[in-house]
Design goal:
Strand content: 5-15%
Mean pLDDT: 82
Order of helices and strands: HEEEEHHHHHHHHHEEEHHHHHH
Number of helices: 16
Number of strands: 7
Helix content: 40-55%
Largest sheet: 4 strands, antiparallel
Low-confidence stretches: 93-97, 202-209, 364-373
Structural class: alpha+beta
Radius of gyration: 22 Å
Length: 393
Amino acid sequence: MGMFITQNQAEKINRPGRFRADRNLYLVVQESKKLGWIRKSWVQRVTINGRRRDIGLGPLDLVNIETARLKALENRIANFEGRLQETLKAEDVFRKSKAPTFKTLAEETLDALRPTWKNAKQSKAWISKMENYVFPRLGNLAIDAIEPKDVLDIVKPLWTTKPTVANEVRRAISRVFQYAQTYGHVDQNLADNRLNGALPKGVHKTKNSDSVPYRDMPEAMQFIEDGMASVPVRLALLFTIHTASRANESVGARWDEIDGDTWIIPASRMTSKGKTKEHRVALSTGALEILERAKALDNGSGLIFPSGMTGSEMRPDTLNDNWKKIRPVKSVVHGFRASFKTWAMEQTDTAWEIVEMSMAHEVGNAVERAYNRSDLLEKRVALMQSWSNYLIG
């Protein structure tokens, strides 16, 4: 795909995700394998008075891409002229009585999430938390009638007594609100970081604070897409995460290192201790789409992600500096590799050595490596594709 999808591409897409169709216009694809449906709808992301909002522009089967782009342009003009907020308020009044209940959306969210989970236990645990802690208070409320206090009344009592459960419940509620935002039922996620100011401080002792929990990675990817202003930095960071590579390896990536769906990093650019040979990276469809978007940055230097300021190779620290400005939790870019490894070991049946080789780690002692010269690239392809699918959400 190019930077923006076409009508033909939109009709052919059959996997869940958000696909950019214009500057702030996306095709959002939701899937329920259990119920056998795929929903495709247009969503425009705008910022009104400093607050982000998703505006539903209709389903793909009723609204074609040109009409969606025209509607999005009209909204951008109205927003520039200060008219959009009042228009949306009027539409909200009309929609109030039509919004589905929290429980209905929670069930739809579960259907959308289930394919990304390893086994039925995760689904049962998710449902159990909803039934025990959330549905008694929110289940029968229309999603747009829920107030921050309703969410706080669920999370706060658990915050000091069962902190782990509190975080899991909060994340589950947040996922439902994210789903509701996608379909234009609400414009705010009431379970996001805005709750922090009302929760007791110093209760949670965070471990491994340099990495994002893998369950929050899809949300972190969206933070990067929406919050990182520099296109080269944004694409370089997304590529770093999709490939589980190191920052210095990705910022120095060159077009002549790409061989079809494989990225071949020369030994001279590998930073692993004792690494004396090139490293081959299996490129997922998500990574390949980022490369397509990066073609617009080509300045003749051969670099895939040249600095937007100098046109030369950007510093690895640039990724970390920009991530720190928008990150929802304390973490560093290198920690995304830990997120990948934890996900792979907990959510897949992938052999340990394949995970290690995907991260360019040496496996076995010197004698074992002398006899085993394979880098297991073919077996790494499925792992990296699964990781990419998980990130897209």
